[in-house]
Design a protein that fits this description.
The protein is an alpha+beta fold and 426 residues long. The chain contains seven helices and 23 strands. The strands form six sheets. A five-stranded mixed sheet has the order 11-17-16-13-14, with no helix packed on it. Strand 20 and strand 21 form a beta hairpin.
């Protein structure tokens, strides 16, 4: 959840991937002499605890065990030394004990004045606080869910059992999502925002092809240095996903790189303002198939329809992580369901996720003009019909960030713009 205070964007208030859940209700304690102990004095907010303790601690525990697939082979990431195990144990202890902190009554959800940036789909902190205080038993039960799973992780660390850590990661994530549904966006799936009509194109009418000459920009995107691997996805969170991918090892393809360094899924667009052109009516289609969004990166014009199709016999959701009018969160519980949206404004690279399956990630580049492309498996791209003159083109990758260069476009000619990401940017 993105929050603002008096209009300024502040730190993210996210019920993180390992979200707000923990132990059992705390009761008052007393000394052996019968004298009451000092009262609790909660100072940190729930948001503070989430961002400073729960999120980073859970990430260490979750990421301590993974299978990495590279061209050289498969690497098993595991804690191996006593120092490795102690590092993971410290985080597991912090995660476990942070759940107790969430149960102290009188703790504010967020600082005064903090608001959700996505009120159409996310509750404001004050609304969350009302829900918690109205039914502490439910809050305590959900918080207890994270405590139980964190305790399993701590036991796995103490047993130095990496397989136990790996196998129970999904349950830890599920404990988080239970709280998401109760407090973060409880009404979003039941009452998704209704997409509005396509916005009108604003700007100077497009010149005719006869009056303006154009050219083409083509190029290759590549990665230098040692090629990274990708993490094997833990689909055990949903046995249905495991069944759909039987006999296959599916990786989180954050870096889709060929052996020669050619890099796919890079979004490229021209910078600047251009004359208005008609918005395509043909939809851009994103498929949820075998518990993966495909393609992983797409480009779309402002106002162009985007269709999200569920091709699996499983529940998926389509949740945009946007602080603008491009916010939506819809459920697609049945195979063949299609949800269409029209993204109303430029929004950088819009990330889409499935709330049911934490690994499912999609990126949508939203542009007001037609001069963009996505590099393919060979690392190549082509942008056609580009106005003549010196153009600035930006390349974006989800891991390696952005690169920019200028290119001179001549009428009827092909200009070359190659991009190479250095290994040092990882």
């Amino acid at each position: 959840m993105h929050l603002t205070k008096t209009g300024a964007r502040l730190t993210t208030f996210a019920w993180s991937s390992f979200g707000a859940t923990a132990l059992l209700a705390l009761s008052g304690c007393s000394t052996e002499s019968g004298e009451p102990t000092a009262p609790f004095q909660p100072t940190a907010t729930v948001q503070d605890i989430m961002l400073s303790i729960i999120d980073p601690s859970a990430d260490v525990v979750w990421e301590s065990v993974a299978t990495i697939v590279t061209y050289e082979g498969t690497e098993e990431r595991r804690p191996r030394t006593d120092e490795d195990w102690q590092h993971v144990r410290d985080s597991a202890v912090r995660l476990l004990e942070a759940t107790n902190l969430l149960l102290i009554e009188g703790r504010a959800v967020a600082a005064p004045g903090i608001l959700s940036e996505n009120p159409d789909i996310e509750l404001h902190p004050a609304e969350i606080e009302v829900r918690i205080n109205a039914d502490r038993a439910t809050w305590n039960r959900l918080v207890g869910g994270l405590y139980d799973e964190a305790l399993i992780m701590l036991n796995a660390v103490d047993a130095k059992d990496p397989d136990m850590l790996f196998d129970n990661g999904g349950a830890l994530d599920r404990a988080c999502e239970n709280c998401h549904q109760a407090y973060w966006y409880p009404d979003a799936i039941a009452n998704p925002p209704v997409p509005g009509p396509a916005p009108e194109v604003v700007g100077t009418p497009a010149p005719s092809a006869a009056s303006v000459d154009t050219g083409t920009i083509r190029g290759l995107v590549s990665l230098s240095g040692k090629l990274p691997g990708n993490v094997v996805i833990r689909m055990g969170l949903d046995p249905g996903c495991t069944q759909l991918n039987a006999d296959r090892q599916v990786v989180q393809e954050a870096v889709a790189v060929a052996r020669d360094g050619s890099l796919a899924n890079v979004f490229l667009q021209l910078e600047g303002t251009f004359p208005g052109t008609p918005v395509p009516t043909e939809p851009v289609v994103v498929d949820q198939r075998d518990c993966i969004f495909t393609p992983r990166v797409v480009g779309v014009r402002v106002g162009q329809p985007v269709q999200f199709t569920n091709s699996d016999p499983l529940l998926h959701t389509v949740h945009s992580l946007s602080a603008t009018t491009n916010s939506f969160n819809v459920s697609q519980p049945f195979e063949g369901m299609v949800h269409e949206v029209r993204l109303a404004q430029e929004d950088g690279m819009l990330r889409i996720k499935c709330d049911r399956h934490r690994w499912m990630t999609e990126y949508v580049g939203i542009v007001a003009h037609p001069y963009f492309a996505v590099s393919d498996r060979s690392g190549t791209f082509s942008i056609e019909g580009v106005p003549v003159g010196t153009q600035t083109i930006q390349a974006w990758h989800e891991v390696y960030g952005t690169l920019t260069q200028t290119v001179r476009v001549e009428a009827g000619a092909v200009a070359t713009a190659d991009f190479t990401y250095p290994e040092s940017t990882t």
